[in-house]
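Methods — Computational structure assignment.
A single polypeptide chain was analysed. Its primary sequence is given first, followed by the predicted tertiary structure written as structure tokens.
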Amino acid sequence: MFNRVMWVVIASLLLSGCRIVTRQQLAELKNPPNANLAKAAQLFDRNIAPQVKSSATPLGTLLTQIGQAKDFDTACRQYGYRSQDENPCVFTVSFSGAISQVNTASRNGQIVVKSDDDQVGEVKVQIGPTFRGTDLRDSYRGLGYGDFNDQNLFGDFGKAINQQAINTLAKQTFTVGGKVTVYGVFSAFDTPQPPLLITPVNITQ
């Protein structure tokens, strides 16, 4: 009886076109590799960081532009970027100022910068060793969710982009009173409220 059942199962598998795969093959079928994920560091260095720096608007100017726009959606279309309607709007900015706080108690380290522009006030800037959010990924117009196989891979891409940005800051030491110039991005669903949280692609001292 057992042998008859086994032959029926084997025959069914053969007729249905099924095949036996290794664990590695099964993992690849569930989570296929994506070339863009492997190139995340290169994309940050050659595309994302230069794009942010070249398109950055002085933060005070941007805040004025957003405030004068008809509504936030209009401001986003004119001055920011939103890859999908359900996503927040991402803005690329630059500003300079003096560090007023250095917060490294948590892994999401941040500095607080008092902008030279009184209209801007204090701004939080992520310094790592981890970044919150995926603003750097979402600011890039060269790739989107459709270029990946699933949400997990797209999330991994965002983490890899963040890590490359963090790597560029690894040798820097930030001290209260130090002067910095920041190029980076922030996101918002509506008119941004202080204090803004900037994810940087470059901080010069």
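Note: Helices lie at 2-16, 23-30, 35-38, 40-55, 59-68, 72-79, 135-139, 151-169.
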